[in-house]
Amino acid sequence: MIRIVRGDITTLDADAVVNAANERMLGGGGVDGAIHAAAGPGLYEACLAVPEVRPGVRCPTGEARITPGFALPAKFVVHTVGPVWRGGDRGEPGQLASCYRSSLALAAENGCRSVAFPCISTGVYGYPAEEAARIAVREVRAFLETRPGFEVVFCCFSERDKRIYEGLTGTGD
Ligand code: AR6
Questions:
Q1: How many domains does the chain have?
Q2: Which of 26, 31, 98, 124 to mutate to test the pocket of ligand 1 (most atoms within 8 A of CB)?
Q3: pLDDT-derived band of residue 173, with 50, 70 and 90 as boundaries?
Q4: Active site residues
Q5: Ligand 1 atom 14, closest CA
Q6: Contact 135/85 with Cβ under 8 angstroms?
Q7: Where are the alpha helices (DSSP H) in 16-149?
Q8: Bridge-partner residues for 155, per DSSP?
Q9: Which residues constitute the domain of residue 105?
Q10: Measuring from each residue's beta carbon to the nearest atom of ligand 1, which residues come in under 6 Å?
Q11: What is the DSSP letter of 9?
Q12: What is the mean pLDDT of the chain?
């Protein structure tokens, strides 16, 4: 089942909330900053403990890593790294799709039955909102086809994003 909400993802009590992180995984601005602030210092320590795959890279673009949620209502944080938008012909759509697939697979492996996503890559990383939402909805629908009972929440920070998701999923007014 897909649910679309407008609000702050740090307040949601899904089994996992997804963080739009960067490859270092040590925090940043936007939703990443909000999640670290709300989860508390334990989250930073847990991220620091994620092994680097190469210097400065704990989670390569398009992949996902999982940590506890610490002070968040969510049990887990799934950290994924979206692509920086460079015009769309540098592999960005495939990398963004991979973020959604990897995050869902990792959450499911850890026993989650509900996962909330922010609009990955559409802030600082500049991915056009509508194109990103199409990919998100397509990947989530494909995942849900084989997982009855699983809930995915698209947590939109703006009314505009919420309307885009409602348009793509045929929900809302
Ligand atoms: N709850 C839900 N959505 C939010 C929240 C929140 N509390 N705060 C912001 N958003 P961004 P990116 C929305 O920039 O583009 C960081 O510095 C926001 O309105 O957070 O993937 C990381 O460390 C937008 O729709 O992530 C990386 O360096 C969406 O979250 C870089 O930014 C994503 O915006 C990642 O950039």
A1: 1
A2: 31
A3: low
A4: 32
A5: 123
A6: no
A7: 30-39, 41-48, 92-109, 129-145
A8: 5
A9: 2-169
A10: 8-10, 20-22, 28-32, 34, 82, 118-125, 155, 157-158, 161
A11: G
A12: 97
What CA–CA distance (Å, rounded) separates 111 from 91? 31
Question: Which tens digit of pLDDT belongs to each residue from 36-70?
Answer: 999 999 999 999 999 999 999 999 999 999 999 99
Q: CATH no. for residue 60?
A: 3.40.220.10
How far is Cα 89 from Cα 98, in angstroms, rounded to an integer?
A: 16
Residue type for position 154: F
Taking residues 112-120, what's their average pLDDT?
98
Query: Global pTM?
Result: 0.98
Nearest CA to ligand 1 atom 11: 123
